[in-house]
């Protein structure tokens, strides 16, 4: 009689996420995953599925955790411009201190271009960021905290495009000062 294998599925997904984050989807083997999760391959297949299904669960876990953290981080800030500044500075901190870069950005370039299911998750993450920031930008314009432009859509795109550029720059140069200086300049531009 086969014995039932019990494990904390969320913890296992979190551990798998860390492996995908470090090695990428294509660089991760089933052995890497089962070792990190502390289970055998048959338990993985019986409870979660194959590597792709596990990756879907891991990337969802990652993006949903980021969304929850952003909401909690910004909900207490009454000034929309201060909330935007906090979001920018938090992004800079993550970019310059996360050893494996952003899992969503890595996934975008490695997997999302050819995988509709992954692309859907990454698109939802991107749309969340856009809606969060455009809401803040519109409020900051209404409160006259931002005067540099009345075009909320353009300003939101302008802010978001910096994040991807900073990720690339930091991966290549590993220069925290460079990223922090450009982030400060961005914040100053919004405050004009």
Structural features, described:
The chain is mainly alpha-helical and 192 residues long. The protein has a domain at 62-191: Tetracycline Repressor, domain 2. Helices cover 78% and strands 0% of the residues. It is built from nine helices and no strands. It has helices at 9-27, 30-37, 41-47, 51-74, 80-97, 103-110, 116-142, 152-173, 176-191. It is elongated and about 60 Å long. 27% of the residues are buried. Mean pLDDT is 93; it is low at 1-5. It comes from Pontibacter silvestris. Residues 29-48 bind DNA. Keywords: DNA-binding, Transcription, Transcription regulation.
- Structural class, by secondary structure, is mainly alpha
Q: Estimate the strand proportion.
A: under 5%
> Could you say what the CATH architecture of the domain at 62-191 is?
Orthogonal Bundle
Please tally the helical runs, counting DSSP H or I stretches of 4 or more residues.
9
CATH class of the domain at 62-191: Mainly Alpha
Mean pLDDT: 93
- Using only C-alpha atoms, the radius of gyration works out to 19 Å
